[in-house]
Queue: 2 jobs
Job 1
Amino acid sequence: MAPTDKNNQNFIVNLFRKSTAIGPVFFFILNISLQKTVLDGLFAVIAVTIVDYIFITLAVLGVGKLLEKPKIKLGLGITSSVVLVLFGIIMILTIKKNNFDNISNAYFESNYISSFISTFLLTISSPLTIIFWTGLFAARAIEKGYKTKQLIFFGIAAGLATFVFLGSSVTLLSTIRASIPIMFLTISNIAVGALLIFYGMIRLFRIVMNTN
């Protein structure tokens, strides 16, 4: 198989993996796009992509093996769970009241830096993701016989897949955004906040159970 064909295959595989791994960060980004602007959502997508590339780089460098140590894994697991819960609580407590019928008539304050930083912090608060990437690269090296150069291309394709999938989702949302009832903003904030809290609590519960 030619290198270009293999790179395209890597991109498609990673794009499919992203589409089937929808989690709290995905809904957090969509919520930013609703509560602020579509451009805010794209800045959030860039933040996630950067974090993914950071994790991928650390995984290639072998940092994932270090994070597999029980004490380090426990500490990072608890920290990331607490961060998720705090993000959820803050989202619910900072809900604003709007007096408009739909989003097209409402005024939204855009804050690209805030959108970028909040998403960056939420995403990077789960460093155990590096272990996932380490396992994925190891599987590619063993099953597919990938060498270092091929793993680098695979990592680049994985990060690009993140940007394409999330960016496409935000863009798609922008096409129907104007027709969304304003009440949906409040519901969306509560739902995403509750999801983050629930996800964080479940993760924390599993950590405690595994420790015992």
Note: Residues 32 and 181 are 16 Å apart (CA to CA).
Job 2
Amino acid sequence: MHAHPHTADLAAAEGSGNAAGSGSWDLVGTEGRGGSVAVAERPYVDTDGTGEGGDDTLVLDIGEDVGALVLYTAESVLGAEIEVSPDVDGAHRVHTMVRRRRMGGQQLCAGVYPELRQGTWRIFGLDDRVIGTVVIRGGQVAEFHGDACRSA
């Protein structure tokens, strides 16, 4: 992570489509890595599915040439680790676990990649095949709907 983490409140986000930046993410603050530095007003709490957990506040380290990705999935993917890599053969992969999250008044399953360099990234499914690509832009949160995270 870098010196100036940013936060986005998942509970305030509204996502749709596979395009980068199609959701509504709130960043707060006024300084940081080429953009806004946000201060977490509430600690991050991952819900257990009962709806009784705390607010889903995430720390995202974005700005200049670094963005983030939210991968929405079907509930069947809950607990799985999904890998992403730059869109270059043999590139190093990073992964995150799909967890139950709250967004507005509903619960959903999503994996969050809080710090990815800008560029095109491959998303690998449960079968280790590419299920899609997403463009990461510095200072922005991209979204991808992976459904069951399996190749066609």
Note: Strands lie at 6-9, 57-60, 66-73, 81-86, 94-97, 99-103, 106-117, 119-124, 130-136, 141-147.
